[in-house]
């Protein structure tokens, strides 16, 4: 990747997971900066999140073509941004999680390195490896990235994400499920005691990190780089839930303590954002502003005709 200062000139980027929550927000931000974008997806993937500008990107279905052919047919890319993942929330077996979170990105990393791609940006998790099959698989792939970087085959930038949220996220994820439950005034939400502290960051701020790293990664003399991404200010889960309940004017009963903590529950998770701060980044949206924005957008999507029918 060329060295950049100020506004990033147009670069050629491959994005995985572009039809998902994080990937679609990031793709939209990259599109807004005018980059030449190629997405890798499955044939059955819904493109609803990116349908309004899908005609401006090149799209490849992984079901029908090889990774090597994609790189051969389009020439050299500057970067790969890998956000596709399997969380295991659909009770996928460990082998399926391994296939999506290790086997596929390893083939992508290898194909990119062979094709002369400069930088591979990996979306990682802050969860400890022993938390779940998902967390373990993310840890394993990062180790592969370290080896490739150590052999100077490709620059590997590991983006270690705390809990990111925003409108349109999967309804099985915690913040989205609480927001939608409160907006629907469910009779009750069964919750843990909520004493665990989490570092919540709006997806727009996560996108801004990637844009910054695209500008800055090549200026750092290290083939393996890692950045923790969050607000840097953890809050109690209970406080977040009560904030959502208050901002949504919900009548739902919050039953704290009804659900036990998970085995190996992390009680405090906080991003050390000093490395990003050294690059000039700061979190642009407070938690309260981000939650208000998400609630308003979710309400508009859930009840689009409510105001007109009142």
Quick summary of this structure?
This protein has ten helices and 13 strands. The protein has a seven-stranded parallel β-sheet, with helices on both faces.
Helical run tally? 10
Helix fraction bin: 25-40%
Q: How big is the Rg?
A: 20 Å
CATH topology-level fold name of the domain at 12-161? Rossmann fold
Give me the CATH superfamily of the domain at 12-161.
NAD(P)-binding Rossmann-like Domain
The low-pLDDT segments are 1-6
Tell me what portion of residues adopts beta-strand conformation: 15-25%
Order of helices and strands: EHEEHEHEHEEHEEEHEEHEHHH
Largest sheet: 7 strands, parallel
CATH class of the domain at 12-161: Alpha Beta
Termini separation: 55 Å
Structural class: alpha/beta
The number of E-state strands comes to: 13
Shape: globular
Query: Order of strands in the sheet with the most strands?
Result: 3-2-1-4-5-6-11
The chain-level mean pLDDT equals 93
Based on the structure given, which CATH architecture of the domain at 12-161 is correct? 3-Layer(aba) Sandwich
Characterise this structure:
The chain is an alpha/beta fold and 310 residues long. The chain has a domain at 12-161: Rossmann fold (3-Layer(aba) Sandwich). It has helices at 21-32, 67-74, 94-114, 133-150, 174-183, 203-216, 237-247, 274-278, 287-302, 306-309; strands at residues 12-16, 36-41, 58-61, 79-82, 119-125, 155-161, 163-165, 188-191, 197-198, 200-202, 224-229, 235-236, 253-256. Helix 1 crosses helix 6 (203-216) and helix 3 runs parallel beside helix 4. The termini are far apart.
């Amino acid at each position: 990747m060329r060295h950049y200062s100020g506004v990033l000139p147009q670069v050629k980027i491959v994005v995985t997971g572009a039809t998902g929550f994080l990937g679609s927000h990031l793709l939209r931000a990259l599109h807004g900066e005018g980059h030449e974008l190629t997405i890798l997806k499955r044939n059955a993937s819904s493109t609803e999140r990116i349908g309004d500008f899908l005609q401006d990107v090149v799209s490849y279905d992984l079901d029908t073509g090889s990774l090597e052919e994609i790189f051969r047919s389009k020439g050299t890319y500057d970067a790969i941004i890998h956000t596709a993942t399997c969380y295991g929330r659909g009770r996928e077996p460990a082998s399926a999680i391994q296939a999506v979170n290790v086997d596929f990105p390893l083939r992508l990393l290898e194909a990119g390195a062979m094709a002369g791609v400069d930088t591979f940006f990996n979306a990682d998790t802050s969860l400890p490896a022993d938390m779940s099959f998902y967390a373990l698989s993310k840890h394993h792939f990062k180790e592969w990235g370290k080896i490739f970087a150590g052999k100077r085959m490709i620059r590997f930038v590991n983006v270690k994400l705390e809990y990111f949220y925003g409108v349109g996220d999967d309804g099985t994820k915690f913040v989205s499920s609480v927001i939608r439950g409160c907006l629907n005034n469910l009779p009750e939400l069964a919750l843990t005691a909520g004493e665990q502290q989490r570092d919540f960051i709006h997806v727009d701020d996560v996108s801004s990190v990637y844009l910054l790293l695209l500008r800055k990664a090549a200026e750092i003399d290290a083939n393996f780089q890692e950045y923790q991404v969050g607000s840097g200010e953890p809050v109690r889960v209970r406080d977040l839930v009560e904030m959502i309940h208050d901002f949504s004017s919900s009548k739902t009963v919050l039953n704290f303590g009804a659900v036990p903590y998970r085995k190996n529950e992390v009680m405090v998770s906080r991003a050390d954002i000093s490395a990003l701060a050294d690059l000039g980044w700061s979190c642009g949206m407070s938690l309260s502003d981000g939650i208000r924005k998400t609630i308003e957008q979710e309400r508009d999507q859930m009840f689009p005709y409510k105001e007109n029918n009142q």
